[in-house]
Amino acid sequence: EILKYYVHKGNMRMAETEHRPTNFIRQIIDKDLSSGLHDAIKTRFPPEPNGFLHIGHAKSICLNFGIAQDYTGTCNLRFDDTNPAKEDITFVNSIKEDVQWLGFTWDGEARYSSNYFDQLHAYAVELIEKGLAYVDFSAQDVMREMRGTLKEPGQNSPYRDTDVETNLSEFAKMTAGEYKEGECSLRAKIDMASPFMCMRDPVIYRVKHAHHHQTGDKWCVYPMYDFTHCISDAIEGITHSLCTLEFQDNRRLYDWVIENISIDCTPRQYEFSRLNLEYTVLSKRRLIQLVDENHVHGWDDPRMPTIAGLRRRGYTPGSIVEFCKRIGVTKMDNMVEMSMLEACIRDDLNANAPRAMAVLDPIKLVIENYEEGQTETLVAPNHPNDESMGTRNIGFSREVYIEAEDFRESANKKFKRLVLDKEVRLRNAYVVKANRVEKDENGNVTTVYCTYDPDTLGKDPADGRKVKGVIHWVDAATAQAAEFRLYDRLFNVPNPAAEENFTDAINPDSLEVKHGWVEAGLADNVPEVGAWQFERTGYFCVDKDSTDDKPVFNRTVGLRDTWAKMGE
Ligand code: ATP
Ligand code: MG
User: Fold this and answer.
1) What's the pTM value of the predicted model, to 2 decimals?
2) Is 387 a catalytic residue?
3) How far is the C-alpha of 507 from the C-alpha of 283, rounded, in Å?
4) Among protein residues, the one whose CA lies closest to atom 25 of ligand 1
5) Which stretches within 42-193 are classed as H helix?
6) Assign residue 3 a region: left if phi > 0, alpha if psi is -120 to 50, beta otherwise?
7) For residues 404 and 445, is the Cβ–Cβ distance under 8 A?
8) Which of 49, 382, 404, 483 is most buried (CB neighbours < 10 A)?
9) SS3 of residue 375 by DSSP
């Protein structure tokens, strides 16, 4: 219900006709299927419920669920919920909503790593019994010190050779809540001299006296990500476990755990590069900070790169899926231009959004030779090159609103709008000629007085006068007052994450609010695609802050790419 105003169905015709994507992961899958290694493909999308999903997650979602779709396999949604202190059920719910909104269906019920806490604990015990894990009482800073560096090997902990019996009873005490946080942890016994830091006896279980959103107060020891993820994959029978490049080294640990426990499944991990998008941040830590420090108005602020923010901004699911298709999947680090994302929504809405007229920054145009009290209904096409979208009726009377910037007292020939003593066409209506103006005390034009040529509705002036300019307008008698929110990039630099303090790079002018007018009844009739093109001003959708008296419109994107010239 909350979504009433801004849920729209993706409807991208071009996406439907395109071929399946190909990438190195799909090539691996093709090989695994033809060699008979697998006969069914199982993937998973494993978000940690500690924030809302962002456009980077959409890349992972489209990859994992897209593979399941194209190979008639399945994809699980699994909440990677091993850090109860930072996680919350609100995030669980928002993640489910976002995945579904993007158009994907997970296999069966949503899963949780916490569903496997009993099994994970038993596997930890198995490692202890095999002499492959030990309880370490070293202080955390000592442990860090002894890990060594990339150039120097680490040193063995004094607890590394504790006997199995003692380790079993100490782990039991850890589990029973007899130790404080940080007092001890369970470590895998691998190789303190490994060139891969993650293999230097990594912690696999830690003490955490915290309430968990799924398991309540049952546990006071929680498994670490590297131990949990691979086992959860194996339990679920995942064939291809796809993650981002920063886990490349951790693949050794992933394989080590699976090899050393008695589980009958060998999932394989493959890494791809994460999405980075210019002029924004895509790390949950930073997005959390933007929300917590009120730099934006919540997770679904239309300036946020979250799925919820993009949805509220007016992005369709189809446009986001198309974006993920266009950027592809590789192992190369990259920074994608914002104009790539905007092109996708523009392509969708250009084809599928009906046209309408709105005046964002109004001045009044009084047609002096139009009889007072007279009104008429004009017919306007909803789309310039798609007749199937039909027409609508718009009111016309003696007074209309036009954009302040569409009028000048004097101008050269390049200005193809309304100028004193010159003519312009009112879109879908008549040709008018400006005669005189009225100004406020600051010298700003508030009203333009004009005359209209009644013989120009749907046709050129009879005497062959050429009228080049066309401007949009809204009938003052029937117009609906509206608020317009225009958005700009959230940051002033292409890569805010590289700044010492990324919040210093926030663009103070990322939101501009305008008060103007739209055609009557517009907001009560939201089109299927969820947005309109307001002629000459951009694509807009209705925001959830709308009231019955005053609709609020978000500008999803302008009509043309304005990013390209930004570097100049
Ligand atoms: P962050 O670094 O923003 O906190 P994360 O990787 O910790 O992100 P998770 O909730 O663990 O966030 O991510 C779930 C899945 O989405 C993981 O498989 C992760 O690799 C993937 N993912 C996260 N960010 C991106 C991104 N920018 N591009 C592609 N995939 C991503
Ligand atoms: Mg993560």
Assistant:
1) 0.93
2) no
3) 18
4) 56
5) 55-70, 89-101, 117-129, 140-146, 164-175
6) alpha
7) yes
8) 49
9) strand
